Structure formats: C-alpha cells, structure tokens
Amino acid sequence: MAVIVGVARETATGERRVALSPETCKKLVAAGCAVRIQPGIGAGAYFTDAAYIDVGAQLAEDATAAADLVLCVQPPEPAAIAGLKHGTVLVGSLHPQADAARSAALQSAGVVAFPLERLPRTTRAQAMDVLSSQAGMAGYKAVLIAAQLAPRFFPMLTTAAGTIRPSKVLIVGAGVAGLQAIATAKRLGAAVEGFDVRPETREQIESLGGKFLDLGVSAAGEGGYARQLTDEERALQQQRLADHLKGIDVVVCTAAVPGRPAPKIITEAMVAGMKPGSVVVDLAAETGGNCALTQPGQTIESAGVTVAGPLNLASMGAQHASEMYARNVFNFVSLLLKDGALHFDWGDELLARSVWPERVEAGVTKA
C-alpha cells in the first residue's frame, strides 16, 4: 500500500509558505506516494490547486487525518496533532520544546516527529537545511525593508542637483542571513560593512564586496564557534561599536542562535548616539532581537532613529521561500522512503539526531 502524504493549510498568523510545492509533489508521486492536500494549501505562495492536481495530488479537506507522513512549515496546533493517527510521521519546523502543550500533544498522539531545525549542520545535511534556506530569504527582505525605511538613497548618484553619497550600511552577524543581507545591500549600491565576533567570517564578507568591521576583539573558539567574551572584552567591543555606529546610516541585525534568545548587541545608548534618520532593522526580533529597543512586529522611532522588528520575513518571499523549503523537506523525506514504504534507518545520524522524542515511539520498528 502506498505511503499517504498529507499536507494541510498553514494556520499560523501571517504564514504564506507551504511545505509542498508542485515540483516536490510530482517527485513524491513518482516515488510511489499518494499525496493528499487540503484545498488552498499553496494559495499564499501562488501555487494553485490545479498545479498540484496536474502532478497527481488529490484534494481532501481532511488531508492529514489518515496520512502516514505529514509535512508542514509551522507546527500544527495541538488539536490538529491530536487528530493524527498513531505512528504518523510529522516533518517540519516543529520546535517541540518551545511549547509544553505541543510537546504533550505530540507524545500523546504517538507521533514520530522530525523537527528539521534539529538537523546536524553537516555537509550532507545542507540540502535539507531549512534554517539556511529560509534565512537567505529573510536577509534579502530585511535589506529591502531597510531601504524602504531609510530617508536616503542606498547608491551613490551623480545628478544635476549634485552628487548623492552612498548610504553606509552595517550588517551585524555573518551567518546565512547576514551574508545575503551584505550581498543585497551591495547590489543596491550601498557602502557595506559586515561585523561578526568570529574573525574567520572576514573572507566571506569581503568576497561579497563588504568590508569586515574589525573592533579589535576576537571571539574565535573551537570548531568554528564563537567563545564567550570576558567582561572586559565585551565592554571594549561595545564601546568601539558605539563609536562606529555614529557614522552609520542603516544597521541590519541578523545574529540569532536557534532555540535561544537572540544576543543583545545594539544597546539603547548606541541607538541614541546614531544620526537622526538612521534605521535599524532587527531580523532577530522573533527571539527577542539584537537591539535593546526592538519591539517584535512593530516599527518605532526613538530619538529620530527608526527601529523595525519584522516577523517571519521568509514568508514575505513566500513563493521562492516555499520552493526552497519544499526541496529541503523532500530531500529529508527521501531518507524515510524505501521501496514505496516508510523505513527508519536509525544508523543514519540525520534521522537519529533529528527525531523527537529521541526515544522512538512504540509501533515504529528500528531498521
């Protein structure tokens, strides 16, 4: 009997992405799966029901009720989880430990959950890395928001009315989102700098046309991770950053740590020292923000400085974000499918390290 894959409409406020694109739907059907979708699952990303039907999907209002495998972007509500059959495999950005009710529902329903944010950051997992693919879209959109809010042009312009100097843009954090932000700001013509506590990011920042902001404090640690700064080092870093921000027009903050509150990097005093008309866009707003003044989901003004804390930026580019997310999900799900059936190879670290709870639920046999 074919594996039944079910996908329901996303219910989180403002969520426009979908975990299944027509492209990946076609691949699942080709792999022998029966794909059932709730009508309208792709509307927010401009994928029509007809596009799914054309590649073999079936419409079903209760698409996940009898599914063996359920795909999602945001975690389903506890009531929706309770409606899944025992042993259902759930794949998506689930964050089970962030919500006690969700965690309890997953365990009570006997769901085998694969929160993709738990995937190890290895070369083999890159094609399944939803954090990276969605961060790229978020970094891109954050710079466009900054350009819209700024009362200045980004590029240098020579006009009959005189020369306009380019905006000075600082990107804080050189992960995937930060590097995409640097590239986007550079394409818009700004004078771009990148700051990260890891000195090894210098080469990446400079390869995109940005200038590495060296504050003279290195947090280089083992394995590519930053070490904890001493109190003296942190104070020196903050003082030098505060002085530098006085000449910056736009700051885009991207420093986030999955599963933990975002580090506070831009203090209220730093914002107060910035020029009137300056802009701070805090991509880390969902986890508290890198800026002390960030109010998640709001744009405020403080002493002439605009501070924006947009949420779910990846959803603003829903079509391409969905295409990338769906490919990530399909690549992971491919590890679970063998000869037209669900198969769990617990010797595969990508499965073993991402499954939640770590102890496999009853009814699922290890390979």
Could you characterize the architecture of this molecule?
It is a single chain. The chain has about 375 residues and is an alpha/beta fold. The chain has 2 domains: about 5-130 and about 320-350, NAD(P)-binding Rossmann-like Domain (Rossmann fold, 3-Layer(aba) Sandwich); about 150-310, NAD(P)-binding Rossmann-like Domain (Rossmann fold). Helices cover about 30% and strands about 15% of the residues. The protein is built from 11 helices and 17 strands. The chain has helices spanning about 20-30, 50-55, 80, 100-110, 130-150, 175-185, 200-205, 230-245, 270, 320-335, 350, and strands spanning about 5, 35, 60, 70, 90, 110-115, 155-160, 160-165, 170, 190-195, 210, 250-255, 280, 300, 305-310, 335-340, 340. The strands form 4 sheets. Strands 11-10-9-12-13-15-14 form a 7-stranded mixed beta sheet. It has a 6-stranded parallel beta sheet with strand order 3-2-1-4-5-6. Strand 14 (about 300) and strand 15 form a beta hairpin. Helix 1 (about 20-30) runs parallel beside helix 10 (about 320-335), helix 5 (about 130-150) packs parallel to helix 6 (about 175-185) and helix 5 runs antiparallel to helix 10. The chain starts with a strand and ends in a 15-residue tail after the last helix. The model is unreliable at about 360-365 (pLDDT under 50).
